[in-house]
Amino acid sequence: MTLKSVSDSRQAGGLNALKNNSTLSGCETPHRPYMKATDNERKTVYYIRPDCKSWSCPYCARNRANLWRFYASYGGDLLLANGSKLMFVTLTSHELVRSLTAGLAVWRSAWPKISAKMRRRSNGMQYLYVPELTRAGSFHVHLITSCELKTRWYKDNARAAGLGHQAKAVAIASGVECGGYCTKYLTKAIALQGWPKHTRRVNKSQGWPRPPKVETPYNWSCVGSDILSVKASVRAYARHGWQVVTKLELFDTSPLLVT
Cβ distance 47 to 23 under 8 Å? Predict the structure, then answer.
């Protein structure tokens, strides 16, 4: 399936607003490295300190949730514009499963079976899903998919794959709805501690539409996490007449032209 493109203004405005490389960051992870890039023609050097982008960091988790809201909305709009129908599906784990670890284990066994049946029913099926552990301890998965199947089908086939008999499927009319669902359940997941290491908070099919990557014109190199080394690098460029561009409040570049 060849996907239509969306407007340039939406791609640039939505994605650029969410790509945060600011050195004035709320990221709470210590010992993050500083990065440097140079523009030889302008004799300008740039310094940034990227966020850790970890789900365990509250600041970065919120940013990642916002970014996935955009990805869900973008992909949903593009799929709908190209003739796909979208469904929001909630699947539950077995009623005897009452922990995050057990819920994930059961899901990882069941999903390949269910998704294989879905693909046989819907050629080119795309999906994006977010897992959730409820306050009661039951494990749910919230799925956005281009596969048009009814609630009854999910109830029967989820149970046969080892999941719970509770399931629901409703139609989605817009990409905004996709983003809303994604944000709702990611926000709940962020509040939950104890996710096993390397657990993906969002999973998607390879064909779920993604916006074009915003490429940086610079080649970034790592300066390290030692602030003294970073300051020494800043001073060295300033002594040689380079303009130092950084938003780091730690640096006052005006008096750096010293002997």
Answer: yes
